[in-house]
Design goal:
homodimer, alpha/beta
């Protein structure tokens, strides 16, 4: 998706060979026009698949999924929670995630009320790197007996293994920008 | 806002006299059509105020602010972060928040790049109870030398002190539903 790649080049920055900062438009300050364009593109790529629920995870996926929902006929968005809250239901699906960025393991939780066997789920997230968060959401979709239609990602780090593993597992994975390499001089190379 | 009150009555539930569960549409599963209606209403209530930035805080405010931005001419949304991340800038505004729900104190952080003296800021959040999160965002707006146009809240707990304190401080606070009381029998009384 050219608009997203252009944003990454113009407003993003590579910090070393692994960290891509896109907090100007994707995960701290948010460019909602861009998210709408991403929604149109996801709708095109997952057309006719009967998606009736978007599933994402705290934190940065939430804004994207909320804006994208409009392009899937305003289907409900559910986000996996990372923190226990007094307000969370007792009946929950849980799955474990290892975060390389934060170097900790955490549980992602989804109330059983909001994910059902009849659901056709599209997982949405801002980044795909090692794929641990998406794996956990996929696991929760399976626990619910729902159907995973696919995974829609804004930025995939193509040099990390998450994308390859999901594709090898037969998952329909659509990433709007795949970063193949971040060079020492700051150049970002797309797939 | 009648649509929101109706949703609270039909899909929310009071758990004791203090906890209002609205995870069916506001803070776990998200009803994006409702958020759009909320955006229209906020735009009406803050019309002509020159809002050019929405400021919110992890987690539940993010989805609302992202959808609401369209009604403020797609102005940027910035969300305060609660967790230190490798990707966060070194130059940040911080303010301390005490969470009664989680019974902990945490720092909210906003990169200095995304909040400037010229900004006219509308703070958006899902709930207002004791007002600690909004107070911290207001403090950050002041640190940046920006102008606080007002505060737009989905659900205010009118029986807690946050709303009164903000109004007494001269803040233009607009809450789309004000819950005055939650009775033992589960009845929810609005202002």
């Amino acid at each position: 998706m050219d608009l997203l790649k252009q944003k990454i080049v113009e407003e993003g920055s590579a910090s070393g060979k692994e960290i891509l900062k896109v907090d100007a438009f994707l995960n701290h300050q948010l460019d909602v026009r861009l998210f709408e364009a991403m929604g149109e593109e996801f709708a095109r790529r997952f057309a006719g698949q009967g998606v009736n629920k978007l599933l994402t995870i705290e934190t940065s996926g939430i804004a994207i999924a909320a804006v994208v929902a409009k392009y899937f006929d305003y289907c409900p968005v559910v986000f996996g929670k990372k923190n226990v809250s007094l307000n969370l239901d007792k009946e929950i699906y849980t799955s474990e995630v290892y975060s390389f960025t934060k170097q900790t393991t955490y549980q992602v939780m989804v109330s059983k009320k909001y994910l059902n066997a009849g659901d056709r789920v599209l997982i949405i997230d801002d980044f795909l790197a090692n794929g641990k968060a998406v794996e956990a959401l996929k696991d929760i979709v399976e626990q619910a007996g729902a159907t995973l239609v696919g995974v829609g990602i804004a930025i995939e780090k193509g040099f990390q293994k998450g994308g390859k593993e999901l594709r090898n597992a037969g998952v329909k994975l659509e990433s709007l920008a795949i970063v193949q390499e971040m060079k020492e001089d700051g150049t970002i190379v797309f797939d």
